[in-house]
Write a structure and sequence with these properties.
This protein is α/β, with parallel strands linked by helices and 327 residues long. It is 31% helix and 19% strand. Residues 27, 29-30, 32, 56-59, 89, 91, 93, 105, 108, 110-112, 114, 134-136, 173-174, 176, 178, 187-188, 215-218 line the site of threonylcarbamoyladenylate.
């Protein structure tokens, strides 16, 4: 059921979650599917619905600092980041408290925690009265949803409720920082740039290759992938397909381009923040069209451009490992 996220609907959603059910809801990054973080059965159901491997841990979403203390231990640098960026699109991986379920952290001694900025998200957590786990509301490996209709298209009535809160403000997942020996390491580029974090706490370690044993599927070489083959094109280098049905995703308005159908421009003036917000919607639209290939223009690798390029590279690496193109 897709419902406008009114206060009554949020209360109903909270009842469903308290009863062990699953609800999709908006955050400022992407839509998530919420389950009670302390209900192992509900969390199991969530893994199954997303077809997510159990080795892939979930982010615990909190509404206030009291709840943070209940799930993790806070270090000095973490505290600084929380003060600056929470509520907001930053996830911190910190030593977990014993009460956090093994299934949530995939037996990891650390837990990922985030306090969303979106009011509907925080009101939902408050209405449940307990932290919620919430992965993005997409089948494992597929493009994340940035509006309620995306969720509806991917899950339909398999979800007890979808709270509609319009378009997501950032349209890109939260940035994930882990502290390893108190040093900040980037696990997933996201809605807050590394530059902003560095300004707050100094150098952030940015691994240049995915680790052999990924800690976050954000770190798998493939993820966030459309069903259609995707190829990154260098800025200004346009391959016009004659024999294949091709779609084009430009970072900024091209000087001249002969086609108008299946053409997406992420930001007319080439503003990275705007491009990030539009990225997943554009990919959803192109992937819904009958295309053989999507060409995506590369963006500068700075600020949010790092997160955009990360998503594009992972989409390009997808060799139908996760999802099969429908005939
Ligand atoms: O913006 C977001 O973070 C969205 C919204 C819904 O809040 N959520 C989201 O969740 O992106 P998900 O499950 O799609 O991605 C969470 C990432 C995964 O790559 C997971 O491996 C990583 O966080 N993660 C979770 N717990 C972790 C942990 N204990 N250690 C390392 N990585 C962890
Ligand atoms: Mg995800």
């Amino acid at each position: 059921m897709l419902t406008k996220a009114s206060p009554i609907a949020i209360d109903m959603a909270a009842q469903i979650i308290k009863g062990g059910g699953l609800v999709a809801f908006p955050t400022e990054t992407v839509y998530g599917i919420a389950a009670d973080a302390f209900n192992a059965k509900a969390v199991q159901k969530l893994f199954k619905l997303k077809k997510r491997p159990l080795v892939d841990p979930l982010i615990v979403h909190v509404a206030d600092f009291e709840q943070v203390e209940k799930v993790c231990k806070i270090s000095k640098k973490a505290e600084k980041l929380m003060a600056k960026f929470w509520p907001g699109p930053l996830t911190l991986v910190l030593p977990k408290r014993r009460t956090v379920l093994d299934i949530v952290t995939a037996k990891n001694p650390k837990v990922a925690v985030r306090m969303p900025k979106n009011d509907i998200a925080r009101n939902l957590i408050r209405a449940v009265g307990s932290p919620l786990v919430a992965p993005s509301a997409n089948p494992f490996g597929y493009i994340s949803p940035t509006n309620a209709q995306h969720v509806m298209d991917m899950f339909g009535n398999k979800l007890e409720m979808i709270l509609d809160g319009g378009q997501c403000e950032y349209g890109l997942e939260s940035t994930i920082i882990e502290f390893v020996d108190f040093k900040p390491v980037l696990l997933r580029a996201g809605a807050i740039s590394v530059e902003e974090i560095t300004e707050e706490i100094g150098r952030v370690i940015v691994p240049d290759k995915p680790p052999r044993k990924p800690k976050a599927p954000g770190q798998l070489p493939w993820h966030y992938a459309p069903k259609t083959k995707l190829k990154i094109m260098e800025p200004g280098v346009i391959k016009l397909e004659k024999n294949k049905r091709a779609g084009y995703m430009f970072f900024k308005m091209p000087k001249e381009f002969p086609y108008t159908e299946h053409v997406e421009v992420l930001s007319k003036l080439g503003i990275l923040e705007e491009a990030a917000t539009n990225l997943f919607s554009a990919l959803h639209r192109l992937d819904a069209a009958p295309l053989d290939i999507i060409y995506a223009e590369a963006v500068p690798e700075e600020g949010l451009g790092r997160a955009i390029m990360d998503r594009l590279r992972k989409a390009q690496k997808n060799k139908n490992k996760v999802v099969k193109k429908r005939k």
